[in-house]
Amino acid sequence: MADEITFDDFLKVDIRVGTVTRAEPFPEARKPAFKLWVDFGPEIGERKSSAQITAHYDPAALVGRQVMAVVNFPPRQIGPMRSEVLVLGLSDGAGGIVLIGPDQAVANGERMH
Predict the structure, then answer these.
(1) What is the DSSP letter of 108?
(2) How open is the CA angle 14-38-11, to the nearest 5 degrees?
(3) Structural domain of residue 68, as residue ranges?
(4) Is 71 part of a structural domain of the chain?
(5) SS3 state at 76
(6) Cα R_g (the chain), whole angstroms
(7) Residues 66, 19: contact at Cβ < 8 Å?
(8) FRET label pair with 27: which of 1, 7, 69, 113, CA 20 to 30 Å apart?
(9) pLDDT category of residue 59 using cuts at 50, 70 and 90
(10) Share of the chain above pLDDT 90, in %
(11) Is residue 33 part of a domain?
C-alpha cells in the first residue's frame, strides 16, 4: 500500500474522461504500445498518449471509447512522440493492461470526483 496522502494531495491529480478519436500502432516504442488521440472537450482539447495496452485492444476498436487519464502531468517524450496525458488502466495479472473508463457515457472533460 502507498503512503497516506491528504485530500488536498488527491485534488492535485487532475483525472478526466475523454473519448479516443484516433489510435494507431506505435512500433517505435520500446515496449508494445499504441498512439492514442483523446478528446477531453473544449476546455482541454485533444491530447496524445502512448499507451501500453496492446494485450487486450485493437486500435480500430478503441476509437469512440471513453477512457480516464491524468491530464496534468508534464509531457514525456517517448521515441518520436510527445505523450501529453497518462491513460489509466489496471493489470490483468499477466501484465496486460485493462483500461479504466465510465460505464455510461459522460461529457468529455468531466473531472473525476
Answers:
(1) T
(2) 5
(3) 11-99
(4) yes
(5) strand
(6) 14
(7) yes
(8) 69
(9) very high
(10) 97
(11) yes
| Position 95 in a domain | yes
| pTM recorded for the entire structure | 0.95
The cell for 62 is 478503441
Within 13 Å of residue 106, how many CA atoms lie on the same side as its CB? 15
Please state the domain count of the chain: 1
Residues 22, 110: Cα–Cα separation, whole Å:
20
Mean pLDDT of all residues in 69-86: 96
Residue 44 sits in a domain of what CATH number? 2.40.50.140
> Which residues does 39 contact at the CB level (< 8 Å), separation at least 6?
18, 19, 20, 21, 45, 46, 108
Query: Using 50, 70 and 90 to split pLDDT, how confident is the model at 33?
Result: very high
Residue at 107 is within a domain = no
- The partner residues of 47 in beta bridges, in order of sequence, read 38
Dihedral, CA of residue 70, residue 44, residue 46 and residue 30, to nearest 10: -30
State mean pLDDT over 83-91: 98
